[in-house]
Design goal:
This protein is α+β, with helices and mostly antiparallel strands. It has 15 helices and 13 strands. The protein has helices spanning 2-9, 31-48, 63-69, 80-85, 91-101, 126-132, 145-155, 167-180, 199-209, 244-251, 282-285, 303-312, 341-351, 353-360, 365-378; strands at residues 12-15, 21-26, 71-77, 105-111, 118-123, 161-166, 186-191, 215-222, 231-236, 239-242, 274-278, 296-300, 316-320. The chain starts with a helix and ends with a helix. Bound molecules: flavin-adenine dinucleotide and iron/sulfur cluster.
Length: 379
């Protein structure tokens, strides 16, 4: 609030064109934007409400403390091929490179084409890391990754680990690391999260499309039309098969797990070292850094996180931002439950995937007209 006070101190009474005093206050150039940022951030702090468990209480987080403690950066990889294979700007690749280049390891989730599961594992090579790229729109499972991570640390007494996962998974890993006494050897990164759908919905969907043959490759966020207009495809028998009927079910919010609507990790201030996500709002806040192939948001919460990001800086394109300029819905509150959620799950249990795809995975005529109008207006 001290910062807000200092900004407001620069205010003067507004005057009309003839120099007469008017009601209201004006700000010198440049300060208006800063005041807007601080006010929106204080609103964000009020909305967090994370006073229990993982959340940090409003009393303990002053606006000033949040501004100084969490730093916001935008970044993207220089390597275009790696950028296109990443969901956002490739923050995962850049951060994991630091660990893999020095013989350390990364705990993250990747897709298993045999079981269709997204499962956490300990990886030590860039080949495995590259395979872990790409957002998968369903809940991943921990598998035996926690035990494997502990074992890896025992086998490598000087080694360090980077953990990358959703807020809830990062919290679980952090608690495990604390209980086992290896927190200081672990850097924890979490991912901004809209919510995950039940993995069962995906398993059934994968089985449904595998009637045509085995899934060989999978992308829920293919960026060929740009980062903001992703397509979703699987490769089966060497040919692309669209899977937008699945992503439509994911985006309509009806398929998200109930716990995601009460997620305590949908806040700006998080008890991890680094948070990564998409730098939405970039066109408005930093248009000069916009890139149609994706830009990552990197929120640095701790000194350990800062040291890691400092190692990455000269290898990527990056810029410093502000926590208010990169706000997005899931940094303020969890995704609200959609109306019709109960009906969705009833339909799923009663009728199966074919019915679900027709009812929830395809556009109605009204949807199609709305989308066409939107496209025409945005040209
Ligand atoms: C379900 C889901 C919801 C998301 N919602 C948002 C959002 O609302 N706002 C936002 O800014 N960003 C969101 N993201 C994050 C965003 O899509 C990117 O994953 C993130 O920015 C990292 O991109 P990248 O280019 O650095 O990484 P990439 O190279 O694409 O790597 C992706 C990383 O995500 C991990 N990952 C992929 N799928 C899962 C999964 N199901 N569970 C756990 N880890 C997974 C991989 O292991 C890897 O570490 C979401 C991601 C997912 C999976
Ligand atoms: S919304 Fe929250 S609870 Fe749901 S998967 Fe994401 S981090 Fe976990």
């Amino acid at each position: 609030m001290l910062r807000l006070y200092r900004m407001l101190r620069g205010m003067s009474c507004r005057r009309d064109r003839n120099g007469a005093r008017r009601r209201g206050l004006s700000l010198p150039d440049g300060r208006r934007r800063k005041v807007r940022q601080v006010l929106s951030l204080s609103l964000c702090v009020r909305l967090q409400g994370g006073s229990k468990g993982e959340g940090l209480s409003r009393k303990r987080i002053g606006v000033e403390m949040m501004m100084t403690e969490t730093k916001a950066y935008g970044m993207r990889l220089k390597d275009h091929e790696a950028l296109m294979a990443s969901s956002s700007g490739g923050a995962f690749t850049a951060l994991s490179d630091v660990f893999l280049n020095s013989g350390n390891a990364v705990v993250c989730s990747s897709f298993d084409f045999e079981t269709h599961r997204q499962e956490f594992r300990v990886i030590t090579s860039k080949k495995e890391r590259d395979a872990a790229r790409g957002s998968k729109y369903f809940q991943s499972v921990p598998g035996d990754s926690f035990r494997a991570a502990e074992q890896w640390l025992k086998d490598h007494p000087d080694g360090e680990l980077l953990f990358v996962g959703m807020g809830c998974q990062a919290a679980g890993f952090r608690s495990f690391a604390a209980a086992k006494g290896f927190s200081d050897r672990v850097t924890v990164t979490d991912i901004i999260c809209h919510g995950s759908s039940s993995p069962q919905l995906w398993y059934d969907y994968a089985e449904y499309i595998e009637k045509q043959g085995r899934i060989e490759a999978l992308s829920f966020r293919d960026k060929r039309n740009g980062w903001e207009r992703p397509t979703a495809v699987a490769v089966i028998n060497g040919s692309e098969v669209p899977i937008h009927t699945y992503t439509k079910m994911f985006y309509n919010r009806k398929a998200l797990r109930l716990s995601c609507h009460k997620c305590p990790y949908a806040t700006l201030r998080r008890a991890v070292d680094i948070t990564i996500g998409d730098f939405w709002n970039l066109k408005n806040s930093h248009p000069e850094h916009y890139d149609k192939d994706g830009v990552s948001l990197v929120l640095v919460h701790t000194e350990k996180g800062q040291r890691l990001f400092d190692e990455v800086r000269d290898k990527v394109l990056w810029f410093e931002s502000d926590t208010a300029d990169c706000l997005q819905k899931n940094l303020i509150a969890p995704t609200p439950a959609a109306s019709g959620r109960t009906r969705f799950w009833k339909d799923y249990h009663e009728h199966g995937m074919d019915y679900m795809i027709k009812k929830y995975g395809t556009d109605s005529t009204a949807d199609r007209v709305r989308k066409k109008l939107k496209r025409m207006l945005s040209k």
